[in-house]
Structure formats: structure tokens, C-alpha cells
Amino acid sequence: MALFRAYKNRPKPKVLAETNIVCPIEECPSSPDLLLLRDAAADERNAIAFYLDAARSSCTPHLFLDVAEDEMHHYVETMREISRLDPVQADLLSEAGLDMLVMTRPLFKPKAKVIAKEAGTNDVQVILPDRKEMPTVNLLTKALSDEFLAVNKYQRYMLDAENAEVQMLFCHLMNEEKEHIAEFTAALFELTHEPLPPEHD
Questions:
Q1: What SS3 state is found at 73?
Q2: 146 or 20, which is more confident?
Q3: I need a labelling partner for 83 at 20 to 30 A (CA). Which of 33, 35, 75, 128 fits?
Q4: Closest CA to 139 of 78, 65, 80, 191
């Protein structure tokens, strides 16, 4: 009887206007632009890890650090756009302490110290992770990239599924993976001293 009461009093399902997908409790953001943005975010993280590793290993570290800095800014910009279109991801980023990645929040000054490239300039330089931290940076980057791909896969599956219960399952799985995106991003930021301050022209 208690189970029946709980079932009867459950939140009413939501119907996504643009897709007619029914979701019981969770929101199921389904903008096709999210698929593109998540692919872009995964690419940015892979580029950042590669350039940080290259800076550690090459005789031209400043070149790679300059490019890594650009990619770090691109990641923040991309994640803020994702958060604008995907309130579930925005909430999970906020819960992970990543309000700077949520479009509705102003960019804040990062906790990490930044090093001026030249005395008297406002330019900032990426602080290299410790050499022994680079394997962890690479592992977290791979994990984060895989999570972006998983969210995109479940969103595509959700949109292609015909059965409402199957759609709800893919919605649920998609939103679970978004929590991992927030967790892996937070862990990476600790090692890579991100986000950097906003760029000024």
C-alpha cells in the first residue's frame, strides 16, 4: 500500500516540447547543438593535456604553454555554452564547485596564482602541473573525453528510441554521466590550475 501511495504521489512526467519525449523526474535536454558542443569540449581537453605534456617534454615549452592557455579559455567558453543549453549539466557543475562554468554566473578570479609572462604585463601563463601529476592529468582527460562521448551517445539513443520507458532510461543514463563530467573537470582543474582569468584585449 505504501508503495502504491508513493507511486500515485510521484512527480508528474514532463514532456519535452521539441521531441515529445516523456521524462518522469529528470530533465532531458536534447538540443542538437549540445552534441556539437560536447564534442568540442572533449577535443579541447585532449588538446590541453597534449600541450601540457609537450611543454614538459620539449625544448620550446613557452610555445606549447601559450597554446594550452588558449585551449583552456576555449574549454571554459564551451562549457558555459553547454550550461546555458543544459540545466542538468549546469546544476551538476555548480554542485561540483564549478560555478565559473555556468553561463548565469559571472567569471570569477581563480584560486590559483598565475605567473606574468613578462614583468609589467597583464598576460598570464599556464602553471605546469608537476611532472609526476601528468599521468593523472592524461588519465582524467581520457576519462572526461569518454564521458562527453557517452552523454552524446545516450542523447542520440534517447532521441532515436520509440518506447517511452527506453527514452526515460537513456535520459537517466545521460544525466548520470553529466555528474562524471563535473567531477572529472573539478579534479583536472586542481592539477592544471584552471580556470585562467578571462582574456583581456
A1: helix
A2: 146
A3: 128
A4: 191
In a domain, 198, yes or no: no
Residue 200 in any domain: the answer is no
**Cβ contact 147:177 at 8 Å:** yes
User: In this structure, are residues 158 and 173 in contact, taking their beta carbons and an 8 Å threshold?
Assistant: no
Sorted by sequence, the CB contacts under 8 Å of residue 166 that are 6+ apart come out as none
Whether a cis peptide bond, with omega within 30° of 0, leads into 195 is yes
Q: Tell me the residue range of the domain where 134 lies.
A: 2-192
The reply to whether 199 falls in a domain is: no
Is 137 exposed, middle or buried (CB count within 10 Å of its CB: 0-12, 13-18, 19+)?
Answer: buried
Q: For the chain, what is the domain count?
A: 1
Q: Which residues contact 197 (CB under 8 A, 6 or more apart)?
A: 107, 109, 110, 114, 124
Q: Tell me: the pLDDT tens digits for 66-117? A: 999 999 999 999 999 999 999 999 999 999 999 999 977 655 554 444 443 4
